[in-house]
Specification:
about 425 residues; mainly beta; Jelly Rolls; 3 domains; 8-stranded antiparallel beta sheet; 1 helix; about 45% strand; elongated
Length: about 425
């Protein structure tokens, strides 16, 4: 009898371990239209009452497999809808593929691309869930399923999508589970406007050439701490911009907090909220990175930093944001990572100095004052110095003199009269 019990317990443990568990996290809202996000809740505070003119979507996505979105019905006298969608182009109810619509009559309707399936009554503070479970969609209220679609057409990734109709309608305490975990991965593009995503790449396919009318944003975010995005410059004759932003309200340059603008003249400009900071040349195939490293932003080309901002105003979460101007402009092989993800360890010093460089003890495995055979590179900018631990065996480089100005190419429009270097 004891052996049987032990075997049963072991079998239960193995079954439990074999069932993947997804972490639940608060929804982080992006692209708000006529709504006010507060934490993981939404309130309609604009537009017209009764109109499908308000909503927001989650920054997180369910990239594959099982997952769910869950929320609380606070009031029973407003009309609003929330569910899971492959993408979101606006605020209409029809674009939400698998959703629950809370009506002013206290009825929770299951709507799939706005097609009615069934309904159930709801009360204030009821908790509702829309879940992908294997190949089915399950709708639950307070932990009890009330409708199941056993043959849904599911297209990943899925994000939480909303439509709020009545003024002062709310979506309260929304959470998502099964979202992509932190770490590195190819960018999954969301909210495309006049661009065609193809895997981790973008192509501007419509709009006017030269206009800031096209772009997309990553579904993944850097929630806090270190992280970066990378991309490849395929062509050198188009104008486009990509960087890190706290939100994505549209397709303009100015909304991208920390970015690289690739010009049709073969120049890569550092732009922060569209303010010019510095530049370097680029060629077809150049690989760029914009990285948050501690409290600095480091811009690199082909693994070598060419500009750093040692005092940026960073607001999390950060997503990859783009603006494509020229027709057929591309962003190729976008990649996003939370954490260092192989990013070299950097530290900024206040000013270049002639003393041998030293590294902080915070860099794992490197002494505070290494001998010259400890591999690292040092890069100087006016007002700052970046040290990079490398994998090679080169000795320390001697300090070199930095220049505090930048040259303007003939015929090129002038940028702001700021020095190239730290801000």
């Amino acid at each position: 009898m004891l052996r049987r019990c032990i075997r049963m317990v072991c079998a239960m443990v193995l079954l439990t371990c074999a069932t993947p568990a997804h972490a639940q996290e608060n929804v982080i809202w992006q692209n708000p239209i006529n709504v006010h996000p507060t934490g993981n809740s939404l309130l309609k505070d604009g537009g017209c009452s009764g109109c499908e003119d308000a909503g927001a979507v989650s920054t997180q996505t369910i990239t594959s497999g099982s997952g769910y979105v869950e929320f609380t019905a606070t009031e029973t006298n407003t009309d609003r809808q929330i569910g899971l969608s492959h993408s979101s182009s606006g605020t209409s109810t029809a674009e939400i593929q698998f959703s629950i619509r809370l009506t002013t009559a206290g009825i929770a309707e299951v709507r799939e691309s706005n097609v009615y399936r069934t309904d159930v009554p709801y009360a204030a503070n009821d908790r509702l869930r829309i879940a992908v479970v294997g190949t089915t969609i399950v709708y639950s209220k307070n932990g009890t399923a009330f409708f199941t679609n056993t043959n849904p057409a599911i297209t990943y990734p899925l994000l939480a999508d909303t439509a709020l109709l009545t003024s002062n309608a709310t979506i309260t305490n929304a959470v998502i589970s099964g979202a992509a975990s932190s770490g590195g991965g190819n960018i999954t593009w969301a909210s495309p406007i006049r661009v065609t995503p193809s895997g981790a790449s973008l192509l501007k396919t419509s709009g006017c050439t030269g206009c800031e009318d096209a772009g997309a944003a990553s579904s993944q975010t850097i929630a806090g701490g270190d992280g970066y995005i990378e991309f490849t410059a395929t062509e050198t004759n188009t104008d486009r911009q990509i960087g890190l932003s706290n939100g994505n309200p549209g397709t303009t340059h100015a909304e991208i907090d920390f970015s690289i603008r690739l010009t049709s003249g073969g120049t890569a400009e550092v732009r922060e909220s569209d303010a010019y900071r510095g530049e370097t040349s680029y060629a077809a195939g150049s690989r760029f990175r914009i990285a948050v490293v501690g409290t600095t932003i480091v811009y690199s080309k082909n693994g070598t930093p060419f500009y750093t901002n040692t005092s940026p105003a960073i607001t999390y979460p950060l997503l990859a944001d783009t603006s494509l101007l020229t027709l057929n402009a591309t962003i190729t092989d976008g990649f996003i990572s939370s954490g260092s993800g192989g990013q070299p360890a950097y530290t900024a010093r206040t000013d270049p100095d002639p003393t041998p460089p030293s590294l902080p003890t915070a860099i794992s495995g490197v002494p505070a004052n290494p001998a010259v055979n400890v591999p690292f590179e040092d890069t100087y900018f006016p007002g700052s110095r970046v040290l990079r631990v490398t994998d090679g065996t080169a000795a320390a480089r001697r300090p070199r003199t930095c220049r505090t100005g930048r040259r303007r190419r003939p015929g090129r429009r002038p940028g702001p009269p700021t020095a190239r270097g730290s801000t």
